[in-house]
Design brief:
Order of helices and strands: HHHH
Largest sheet: none
Number of domains: 1
Strand content: under 5%
């Protein structure tokens, strides 16, 4: 995945590929935070950067009270799996 558009497309494909409910939940939750933070870094053609990942991580931490402890774990684990994309 070279751009945020590619990443967003990956998230959308999860729906069509019948991903499990936890993955669908985590990906859509994280996608919202990526979209909110990405506007400060450029458009959707930008490369996912470490700086963007840091902002998303902080936003997830700041909003963790929105989630149950179980959902926090699901989101955190999925977010960790996405980290290699952000360079």
């Amino acid at each position: 995945m070279n751009t945020l558009t590619d990443l967003y497309q990956h998230f959308d494909e999860l729906v069509f590929n019948d991903a499990d409910p936890d993955t669908l939940f985590a990906s859509s939750y994280i996608k919202g935070f990526i979209a909110l933070e990405a506007v400060n870094f450029g458009d959707e053609q930008q490369t996912p950067s470490k700086a963007l990942a840091e902002k998303v991580t902080q936003a997830l931490i700041n909003n963790k009270t929105e989630l149950t402890p179980q959902d926090q774990t699901i989101v955190n684990n999925y977010w960790l799996s996405l980290q290699p994309i952000f360079k």
